[in-house]
């Protein structure tokens, strides 16, 4: 007896006692009455609020589930809450008390039905005790709510929110917003509750199935409420978009949209075919088993010895080893076990989505009608608003909402395509199209915008970089469906749709980074699950197919590539050595001349420049990115599931292997033992493809492909005996090329567009020319490059001799030419330029690549003949004709002097330490202007780092283009041109886990905020005396602050004379007196304008304080998030401008100070004096927070016209 009376210690006894007493006081059935109706307790409303406080302040604050466990054991939802809601009939909508009680019931049911998440980091022993019980309790809640006969619980919830929803969004209070969100979260919770994996539900699962949920939503008008909110999203509703998204996601996920719009007859045929295929597969398995199965004579055990080639004996048991040698070998191979290393389980996308859902006919028709209505009216408003919220990273958008958004976009796009195909199959008579008819593709145009493509590309790259595989799966599904929808538009025959589709495809394929990401996704598959594998292969197949067709139609297709223009060090060193230098020359060209930089940004700019350029797209070259062994392995892993794949999936794998083996002639990538064994088993193995299941056409295609690949492999083995060894291994690109063609790929190490040597400059830009030449000569001497010094001296001497002879000839002609005995005196004409000839090829290379020689050549006056053209090693250098023989001789003397007396520097510095590489911004050439350019340097269309928009593409603004991108870790790869290409570095699992943890913490903060705001305040008609006193006290304090801001001290300051202001001698001379009264007029005082600025700032502060003091359960900040910038700009503009009445009331005496007609200097001095006076006055006033005041421009006084000290009146100015 004592053992049976031991209390249950899962919950504290005092907590259980309090909860049970509150549940008892809530109400019950009366024993005296005969109507068996539920009777509310006297204080039922207060009891419901007390229970809500217990959940809020005990369970949530202490991270426990004790109150929820007690309420589940008391069965409060089924026994009390639903009965209370049934007491509010639909005809009694005017009863305020009933509506308050109903609202309190939903406030209690929302936290009880809130999704339970298992977080290993925060879970305690208490959670493990309560979780199984609460999960089963939530299933019972769902069953009771959607199957309650006495009242429509879901419809009653909508009735509670309907008065708040009917109000315009500008008239809703925080309480109204809270009620709407509360009811939507309740509907979300009901749609989200499902049996957890591994838990057996004791009741009838059909009562909580997806079909029952859809039937309840349709019967109780929940679908109509969802359509109403979705179609008015952005106008009457804003932050409710993510809640509607969750509701749609949880009753549409894993529903096959391809079966939704087919007729009942077609659906029965599809189900019959599926059943036939399953039965045929089972029969094939039985046939293969019966060949080796036991018979009536095999009841006795069998053991045989098999003698191997090496003489060893192997023991095999079972009569199936007696059938044939192949069976014995398979049995021996089956006995070999390999214990793979254990790895931690990973959450897969299919586990998150759940198993596929089968709907009954009634639920299918109801869902079909809802989806049709939603596509017609609510799809564009809802998903356009969601896309904008995701782009601006709104605070109410969680990380899970992004994956749900992409999943639903792909689902609805597929449903729309299926609906269009069903309408075509029904062959409806063509109706005349009205002017206002909506095109079918316009119904989903909200997600076929350039902004959506930008969002898609960004999250494709972000999810892959962060290794967020579930989100990446949904993004790939969405990408595929958008491509298929655009292809449908291309084939529609409508010119407008075809033009829009062409623009969308040009935007989709314009960024080369998108191509690289898709190729990387296909290449790096490891163990992300079948859903990820299916989405990856489907995107690869669709992307390649549509891109190939588009590139054939648009021969001049352009893509934008981003590269880092930095060559390999080895190539630079080789060129430097060939030019007569050392490896240090190449290091200078690679990085910088001076290794120590004052500015890190300049050092980064010198190391590498990020360039964005357009280039012509070559599909054949792009398709080679899908030939590496990693992509082949991805499709091989996908083909391993050939017995479970649909005909479309098998066709997808077939097209890829055909492309590799025959289109690109790289069949050697498939010549590996496991791949050949897979292909053989698909056709001739023990479990081959069944033609009756996959279709005869698909089976014949695979049979022909396998036959041709095996034949090609046999032939290649005869040609390349080395392939016998390579059959065991994966093949690199070079190895596969050699095995295919018999020779190695020839690559050129010389760049097609060589670049000249780095352009250098002097650190001290104030050096004279002689010192500059001495420094460069010193560098050449330190580097033992005297041969280039001698060549420059020789070239200068020859040019000086030639120029001196030409000048002498011109002087003789000038002196000999006379007219009437008078000598004609004039300037000499410009001499012809002298071409500089390099002594040999080595010298020519040094002229192009040696930066120090090039600097010396420019210092002595050498120039390129065509400086506007790109420089090449064959560019011609000249001595310009404007240089005289004297100039050339001076330059030669400077070189000789520096050669015999090299410069010396302090602190042991070398000559090369005085040089540095010119930055990218310094070297950038000015923009070449066209003939029609007006030459305005301030034109907004000046060439920058990137164009404002790509030519020939939709001129739409990227909503996130101005937002700075987050820095990510990059890696560099060398392309075939010898350039380093910037790619995203693959992060390891630890770093990915750290990023995922950071995202999870951020999401938890949002969840805590949302869940803590689920509750609605009690009522507006209830008063609180203490709260009223606090409110009036705060208002009185604000009034005192306002009086202090606009009181008398400001007026007294106007009369004070600012210090430090005196009359100039010129003013005293003109005025004839030294009265200080006139001096005061020269000062422009602005205390009231400064007060106006403080007033605006004070208003902002008061608004912030008011928001902090209010205790609102449902936050309304998110609703006004879109208008925040506009409101702030209006407040700042109103605060910064003083009132006109204040300015007009402030009068000043006319100034007697003389001003010239152009008196700019005197006006400027007066302005400076006025500013100084205001500053001194502020210091003397001793006001607080003067540093925060924004300076306001002083009003300009009209100056009278003055000449020689006399005021001149003009009637024109009146």
Automatic annotation (TrEMBL):
It holds the Pfam family TIMELESS. Keywords: Cell cycle, DNA replication inhibitor, Meiosis, Nucleus. Residues 1132-1142 have a biased composition (Low complexity). Residues 585-603, 933-946, 977-987, 1072-1082, 1105-1129 have a biased composition (Acidic residues). InterPro entries: Timeless, Timeless_N. Residues 329-358, 558-612, 916-987, 1015-1214 are annotated as: Disordered. It is found in: Nucleus. Residues 560-571, 917-929, 1088-1098, 1143-1152 have a biased composition (Basic residues). Residues 37-306 form the Timeless N-terminal domain. Residues 345-358, 1029-1039, 1050-1071, 1173-1182 have a biased composition (Basic and acidic residues). Its main location: nucleus. Belongs to the timeless family. This is Topoisomerase 1-associated factor 1.
């Amino acid at each position: 007896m004592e053992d049976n009376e031991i209390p249950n210690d899962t919950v504290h006894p005092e907590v259980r006692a309090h909860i049970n007493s509150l549940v008892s006081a809530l109400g019950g059935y009366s024993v005296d009455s005969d109507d068996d109706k539920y009777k509310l307790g006297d204080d039922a409303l207060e009891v419901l609020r007390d229970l809500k406080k217990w959940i809020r302040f005990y369970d949530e604050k202490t991270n426990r589930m004790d109150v929820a466990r007690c309420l589940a054991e008391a069965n409060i939802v089924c026994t009390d809450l639903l009965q209370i809601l049934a007491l509010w009939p639909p005809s009694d909508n005017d009863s305020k008390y009933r509506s308050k009680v109903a609202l309190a019931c939903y406030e209690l049911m929302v936290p009880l039905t809130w999704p339970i998440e298992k977080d290993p980091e925060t879970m305690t022993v208490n959670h493990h005790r309560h979780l199984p019980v609460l999960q089963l309790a939530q299933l019972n809640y769902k069953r009771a709510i959607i199957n309650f006969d006495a009242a429509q619980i879901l419809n009653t919830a909508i009735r509670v929110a309907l008065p708040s929803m009917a109000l315009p969004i500008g008239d809703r209070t925080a309480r109204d917003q809270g009620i709407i969100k509360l009811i939507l979260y309740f509907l979300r919770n009901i749609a989200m509750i499902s049996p957890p994996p591994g838990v057996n539900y004791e009741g009838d699962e059909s009562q909580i199935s997806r079909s029952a949920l859809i039937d309840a939503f349709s019967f109780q008008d929940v679908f109509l409420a969802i359509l109403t909110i979705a179609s008015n999203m952005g106008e009457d509703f804003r932050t409710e978009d993510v809640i509607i998204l969750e509701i749609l996601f949880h009753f549409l996920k894993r529903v096959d949209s391809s079966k939704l719009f087919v007729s009942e007859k077609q659906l029965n045929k599809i189900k019959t075919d599926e059943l036939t295929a399953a039965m045929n597969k089972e029969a094939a398995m039985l046939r293969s088993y019966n060949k080796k199965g036991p018979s009536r004579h095999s009841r006795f055990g069998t053991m045989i010895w098999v003698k191997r080639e090496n003489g060893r004996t192997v023991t095999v048991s079972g009569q199936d080893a007696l059938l044939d040698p192949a069976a014995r070998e398979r049995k021996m191979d089956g006995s070999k076990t390999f214990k793979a290393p254990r790895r931690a389980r990973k959450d897969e996308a299919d586990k998150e989505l759940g198993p596929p859902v089968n709907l009954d006919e009634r639920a299918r028709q109801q869902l079909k009608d809802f989806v049709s209505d939603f596509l017609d009216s609510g799809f564009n408003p809802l998903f356009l608003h969601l896309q904008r919220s995701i782009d601006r990273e709104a605070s109410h958008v969680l990380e899970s909402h992004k994956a749900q958004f992409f999943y639903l976009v792909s689902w609805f796009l597929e449903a729309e395509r299926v609906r269009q195909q069903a309408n075509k199959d029904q062959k409806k008579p063509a109706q005349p199209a009205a002017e206002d008819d909506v095109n079918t593709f316009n119904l989903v145009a909200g997600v076929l915008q350039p902004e959506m493509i930008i969002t898609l590309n960004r999250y494709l790259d972000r999810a892959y970089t962060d290794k967020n595989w579930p989100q990446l799966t949904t993004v790939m599904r969405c990408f595929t469906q958008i491509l298929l929808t655009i292809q449908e538009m291309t084939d529609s025959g409508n010119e407008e749709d075809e033009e829009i589709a062409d623009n969308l495809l040009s935007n989709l394929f314009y960024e080369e980074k998108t191509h690289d990401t898709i190729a990387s996704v296909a290449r790096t598959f490891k163990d992300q699950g079948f859903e990820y594998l299916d989405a990856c292969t489907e995107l690869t197949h669709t992307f390649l197919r549509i891109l190939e067709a588009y590139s054939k139609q648009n021969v001049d297709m352009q893509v934008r590539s981003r590269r880092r223009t930095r060559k390999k060090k080895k190539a630079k060193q080789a060129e430097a050595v060939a030019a007569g230098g050392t490896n240090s020359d190449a290091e200078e060209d690679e990085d910088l001349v001076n290794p120590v930089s004052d500015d890190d940004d300049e050092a980064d700019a010198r190391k590498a420049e990020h360039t964005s350029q357009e280039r012509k797209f070559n599909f054949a070259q792009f398709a080679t990115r899908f030939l590496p062994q990693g992509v082949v392995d991805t499709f091989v892993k996908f083909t391993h599931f050939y017995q479970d794949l649909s005909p479309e999936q098998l066709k997808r794998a077939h097209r890829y292997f055909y492309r590799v083996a025959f289109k690109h002639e790289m069949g050697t990538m498939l010549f590996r033992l496991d791949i050949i064994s897979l292909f053989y088993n698909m056709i001739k193995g023990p479990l081959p493809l069944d033609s009756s299941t996959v279709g005869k056409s698909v089976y014949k295609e695979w049979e022909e492909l396998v036959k041709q690949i095996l034949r090609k492999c046999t032939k290649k083995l005869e040609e390349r005996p080395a392939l016998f060894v390579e059959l065991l291994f994966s093949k690199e690109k070079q190895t596969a090329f050699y095995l295919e063609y018999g020779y190695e790929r020839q690559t050129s190490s010389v760049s097609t567009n060589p670049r000249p040597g780095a352009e250098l400059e002097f650190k001290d830009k104030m050096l004279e020319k002689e010192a500059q030449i001495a420094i460069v000569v010193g560098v050449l001497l330190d580097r033992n490059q005297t041969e280039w010094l001698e060549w420059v001296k020789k070239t200068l001497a020859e040019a000086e001799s030639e120029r001196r002879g030409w000048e002498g000839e011109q002087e003789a002609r000038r002196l000999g030419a006379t007219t009437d005995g008078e000598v004609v005196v004039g300037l000499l004409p410009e001499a012809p330029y002298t071409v500089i000839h390099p002594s040999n090829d080595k010298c020519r290379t040094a002229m192009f690549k040696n930066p120090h020689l090039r600097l010396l050549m420019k210092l002595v006056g050498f120039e390129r003949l065509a400086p506007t053209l790109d420089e090449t090693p064959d560019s011609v250098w000249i001595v310009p004709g404007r240089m005289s023989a004297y100039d050339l001789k001076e330059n030669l003397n400077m070189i000789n002097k520096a050669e015999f007396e090299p410069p010396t520097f302090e602190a042991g510095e070398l000559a090369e330490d005085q040089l540095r590489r010119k930055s990218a911004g310094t070297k950038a050439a000015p923009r070449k202007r066209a003939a029609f350019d007006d030459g305005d340097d301030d034109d907004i269309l000046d060439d920058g780092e990137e164009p404002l928009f790509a030519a020939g593409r939709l001129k739409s603004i990227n909503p996130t283009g101005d937002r700075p991108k987050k820095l990510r870790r990059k890696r560099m790869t060398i392309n075939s041109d010898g350039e380093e290409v910037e790619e995203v570095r693959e992060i390891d699992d630890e770093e990915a886990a750290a990023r995922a943890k950071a995202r999870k913490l951020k999401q938890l903060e949002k969840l805590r905020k949302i869940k803590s705001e689920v509750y609605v305040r009690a009522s507006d008609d209830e008063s609180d005396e203490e709260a009223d006193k606090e409110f009036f006290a705060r208002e009185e304090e604000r009034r005192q602050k306002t009086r202090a801001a606009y009181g008398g001290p400001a007026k007294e300051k106007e009369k004070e004379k600012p210090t430090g202001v005196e009359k100039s001698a010129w003013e005293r001379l003109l005025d004839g007196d030294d009265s200080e009264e006139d001096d005061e007029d020269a000062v422009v005082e602005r205390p009231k304008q400064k007060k106006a600025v403080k007033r605006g700032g004070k208003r902002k502060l008061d608004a912030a304080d008011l928001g902090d003091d209010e205790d609102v359960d449902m936050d309304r900040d998110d609703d006004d998030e879109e208008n925040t910038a506009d409101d702030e700009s209006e407040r700042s503009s109103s605060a910064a401008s003083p009132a006109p009445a204040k300015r007009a009331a402030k009068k000043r005496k006319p100034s007697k100070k003389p001003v010239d007609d152009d008196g700019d200097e005197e006006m400027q001095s007066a302005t400076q004096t006025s500013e100084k006076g205001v500053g001194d006055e502020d210091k003397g006033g001793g006001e607080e927070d003067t540093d925060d005041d924004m300076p306001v421009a002083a009003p300009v006084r009209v100056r009278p016209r003055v000449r020689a000290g006399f005021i001149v009146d003009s009637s024109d100015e009146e």
